[in-house]
UniProtKB/TrEMBL annotation:
Signal sequence segment: 1-30
PROSITE patterns per record: NEPROSIN_PEP_CD
Protein name: Neprosin PEP catalytic domain-containing protein
Residues covered by the Neprosin PEP catalytic domain: 66-318
Domain of life: Eukaryota
Annotated source species: Urochloa decumbens
Keywords carried by this UniProt record: Signal
Entry keyword Zinc: no
Cross-referenced InterPro entries: Glutamic_endopeptidase, Neprosin
Amino acid sequence: MLCKSDQREMGILLVACTLFVLLVAGEVHGSRSHATGEEVKQKFHAPINETSSIRGLIGHVSPHLQDSSDAIVYFAYHGAASAPNGYYGFIGTMDVYGLPLAQGQGSAAAVWISDEGDGAPSSLKNIMIGWDVLPDLYGDSKTHFYIKWTNDGFQSTGCLNLKCNGFQPEKGAAITPGDVIDHVSSPNGAKRNLNLKIIKNGTSGDWLVHCGLDRPPQLIGRFPRSLFTGGFADRAVGITFGGVVSAPITKPTPMGSGYLPTDVKSAASISNIQLVDQNGRAWPVTGDLPKLETNRNAYAVTPIVNGRFYYGGHEQPPMV
Ligand SMILES: *[C@@H]1O[C@H](CO)[C@@H](O)[C@H](O)[C@H]1NC(C)=O
Ligand SMILES: *[C@@H]1O[C@H](CO)[C@@H](O)[C@H](O)[C@H]1NC(C)=O
């Protein structure tokens, strides 16, 4: 019910953001050695289709959401969609936080690599990677590294972490999906960084997942090409990154570090953001991208500047 009334507002927001991005994009992209700013913009900076994005993203933070009439999901993210040739990878760094959450609450930092299909829920295909705190699923309020995937909107394929066959962990990988991230950032002090690189192997078509905690990303496993059908076997239509929370309406949940990004010293960030094209070339995101904030008083994102933005919010004392 929240979503219905909010979607109208989001539609308006979308138009406003899209116009803003289209107006400023030309100014913020400098020319590059092999391509002009205009080419980068065309490649990667098309507006997000918010209607389909939200539908695709809801349910990804909490499997109980659909059954739970009083749970609400909020997003604050940036994203790119509708690039003519699609997307073949994402590179970025998330700082990781600890959050004291109760049953029913969930909070995640995510990159969504997706194809929303024709709009039917079962046509959603995506891969989601990041860190999350989900007491209902893990039985604790610790921060976990997670992956999630589906080829059909979770109707009969896909799952979180290694709960089903699909993701193939690399032997000897330093981190396995579902692992606890013990040391987290302190909002005013040292940061703990999750370095991510998810990139398609141009030969096999597998999505290769690289990840490193406070060190360069190393291969930790893959989503075989054979898991996916249709266009998503070859490329993603959209890539989105930011925060998502779910909670009962009576119990708001911190996103990111819990701090609104008006306080950039304390707010969570995603930095070093790069998008990968069909030739395997990584393009640093030098300008802003469309954003979505479904409750902007509580959860927000800053514009992307030099491949970094801050996000999160909701006043709740963070755990240090
Ligand atoms: C957004 O996605 C929905 C569902 O896939 C589709 O019906 C609609 O036409 C799309 N809107 C735009 C502007 O592309
Ligand atoms: C990419 O795919 C090719 C062909 O299957 C394979 O030989 C190569 O090892 C793959 N690279 C990685 C990093 O998995």
